[in-house]
Amino acid sequence: MPQSKITNIMIEFEHIKKLSRTSPSKIVLLIMDGLGGLPHTKTGKTELESAKKPNLNRIARDSLCGLTDPVSPGITPGSAPGHLAIFGYDPVKYNIGRGVVEALGIDWDLKPDEIAARGNFCTVDDKGIITDRRARRIPTAKNTELCRALNKIAINGVEISMLPVKEHRFVLILHGEALSPDLADSDPQQAGLAPRKIEALSPQAQRTAEIANEFVSQARKLLRVEVSANMVLLRGFSRRPDIPLIPEIYKLKPAAIATYPMYRGLAKLVGMQVLPGGETITAQLNSLHLYYADHDFFFVHFKTTDARGEDGDFRAKVQAIEELDNALPNLLNLDPEVLIITGDHSTPATLAQHSWHPVPFMLRSKWCRPDNVTEFSERACLAGGMGRFPAMEIMPLAMANALKLDKFGA
Amino acid sequence: MPQSKITNIMIEFEHIKKLSRTSPSKIVLLIMDGLGGLPHTKTGKTELESAKKPNLNRIARDSLCGLTDPVSPGITPGSAPGHLAIFGYDPVKYNIGRGVVEALGIDWDLKPDEIAARGNFCTVDDKGIITDRRARRIPTAKNTELCRALNKIAINGVEISMLPVKEHRFVLILHGEALSPDLADSDPQQAGLAPRKIEALSPQAQRTAEIANEFVSQARKLLRVEVSANMVLLRGFSRRPDIPLIPEIYKLKPAAIATYPMYRGLAKLVGMQVLPGGETITAQLNSLHLYYADHDFFFVHFKTTDARGEDGDFRAKVQAIEELDNALPNLLNLDPEVLIITGDHSTPATLAQHSWHPVPFMLRSKWCRPDNVTEFSERACLAGGMGRFPAMEIMPLAMANALKLDKFGA
Fold it and tell me: Which one of A62, A171, A294, B301 is separated from B117 by 20 to 30 angstroms, measured CA to CA?
């Protein structure tokens, strides 16, 4: 399995596991998804630099600040590696498949003997050539209806579940014995080509490839009458990975408050208990209050910064930051022993997509060594006490500042 | 002060290969050889800090700046590792022999069954002691004549090619079956000693060692009549390494514009097409214009900064920087999507040799996140957005800023 080159040796779970200990102190990790930005062409200021954010700035003054590289310089992370790195997992070693992430994202409790694939309904012409990879984004209701029809496909020795997601997106679950996720995509990722036959990437995957191809063939027949969604594309075949859990590694009792299914799924994957949240950050922080006594680690996920960044709406991303800043007093009055505010990656509104740029980070605790940073922003954090550092180092820092790590060595 | 710790996760070619994609955007990598310097004892300013360089400063203002470690802190790189690191190759893993680099530098298309060594014609006294390692820098024409004579040396089972380079320098090629490059140098690297007998460093190299010693012995006889060039020194026995190529790793169509043979050789080794250049940076940049449409990656090599640094001529190195700065507008009007200006290592004029000091770096692109650096110099770049970072991270950054890297993970 590929492993990253880590200079920080102690990040290896075997070491951290030996040093970690339970204590009553609380760690709150607030992830502002897609937090990092780029300067607006007119003002020269990033989204964070443009936002009115007195609370974030006040926290920065008392914090240890820095900029994190979620994976490594130049690499744009998807949501899964972005979060896993923050939770302390080597995102290359624990590279979670697309199918798994999608399945977790719709609250499907993926079993070890299930294979998940991300699917698209698509449009093909008479010759079977893809004309629209997204089947003109059929309504979700139509998707649900089609999934119900395809659920009836029967193939010997395997149970099939078609799970609708949004518009043209679905998840295919294959449940059975001796299945292997070692399959190439059928999705050629562009129109003008025919869907590919699904190839086994290892001998053990031969039977699973046949099953998947048989599924596609039957689906094609059943969908023939459809105008837009007359074919399916599959990609990211994967199985729930067997990964060490946060309660085991860090001896924490972790909980997650996230509005989007995918982040709840990721949280479950690493052993967090998912708490009820609500749609707004205010509701999420109310939930934090409600369950504060029951856990010692809280992952609070704020999605709006990323969503507005992906929309390319600079102003709306600034407003999302201000909305969060406004809600912060309700978090601050809990006064957690360790408060971390950062992002899983950058999503500059000017770029309107995830990016490789490092992400502002701050950690406040009684035991942090504050630096000279007085503002929470990309440029200000550059001068912070952590400088630029790998996101994988966040968890040991959090644990240390919560006085939950023993001394190493004699 | 910002610092970058090496995670280098995605630098592994297997990962970058999966993420890289072709796009029309252009990357120009301008290497000012030996760029980094040390303060002049009188003024306290480095060569870069002393130079009048309005164009470099202007670029720095719009750039992401930093300081690179070519290999790692404290390590002084040769030209090959200095450049290979910038091209994304682990310079320790891909340690290219001197003989290979020299052979490639004179356009010798080195075959896998050939062993190359870098050679010097030298002067020895009656007792065989070296009095001048460079044979008073004999003219290249004389060198060519001598090489022609030594080409006639016949040794059983091996074909010998003596290739003249410049002044006292040549390349020896041994071509034959079951040869091994695992040989120690004959060159003791200082006058006052006798040339060493070439030792086999492994049992398989025994026969090759005998061949090489026989060659030296016959060469000594043939050169006995010469006044200056009456002996040869050999070093860096090596074989062409099997390394992944830039077009495969990054899906780029790379080209090199370099006046010195060695850099053209290195460029060829990593799969670049070598373009005609000319002797001055102005001529090189004209060549860049001429071939700009045909490639998407350009390595432009400026040698003078290193040459004047090695001469120990502070003033001349400052002038070399100013000469380059003067030529820059002709590069800037191409407005490449990504422009990188850095060096392969430092060559402080006060030290008059390559050194271990980190090297100023800047990257300008529409998508870089500019920092507060307003001057291109060692001290100013220290506060840059990249902080201090390994040169091996340059290529992923270049690719990201050219929007030539896909997102990693779901």
Answer: B301
- Percentage of the residues of chain B whose pLDDT score is greater than 90: 87
Residues of A in contact with B363 (CB under 8 A): none
Nearest to A121, CA basis, from A108, A111, A110, A130: A130
Residues of chain A with CATH 3.40.720.10: 9-94+244-401
Mark yes or no for CB contact A38/B369 under 8 Å.
yes
Q: What is the pLDDT of residue A409?
A: 87
For CATH 3.40.720.10, the residue range(s) in chain B are: 9-95+244-401
Would the CA dihedral through A208, A214, A216, A218 be positive or negative? Answer: negative
CA distances from A321 to A56, A263, A361 (A): 9, 19, 14
Distance of alpha carbon A375 from its chain centroid, rounded?
27
Global ipTM: 0.89
Q: Which amino acid is at B37?
A: G
Helix axis angle, B394-401 to B79-86, nearest 10°: 30
Select from B1, B17, B369 the residue whose CB has the most chain A CBs within 10 Å, as the one to mutate to test that interface. B369
Task: Return the CATH number of the domain spanning residue range B9-95+244-401.
Answer: 3.40.720.10
DSSP string, A287-307: HHHHHGGG-SEEEEEE-HHHH
Residue whose tokens read 């700009």 = B292
Q: Residue A95: its chain B contacts at CB < 8 A?
A: 409
Kindly state the helix (H) or strand (E) to which residue A169 belongs, with its residue range: strand A169-175
Cβ-based interface (< 8 Å): residues of B facing A: 1-12, 14-15, 19, 367, 369-372, 383, 385-387, 389, 393, 395-401, 405-410
> Would the CB atoms of B408 and A81 count as touching at under 8 Å?
yes
Could you tell me the pLDDT band of residue B242, with boundaries at 50, 70 and 90? confident
CA distance A140 to A185: 23
Report pTM: 0.90
Contact yes or no for B9 and A8 at CB 8 A: no
Q: B125: which residues sit within 8 A by CB, 6+ positions away?
A: B131
Q: Cβ of B396 and A72 within 8 Å?
A: yes
Fold of A9-94+244-401: Alkaline Phosphatase, subunit A (3.40.720)
Which residue of chain B has the CA closest to A351?
B367
- Report CA dihedral (A403, A405, A409, A410) to the nearest 10 degrees: 40
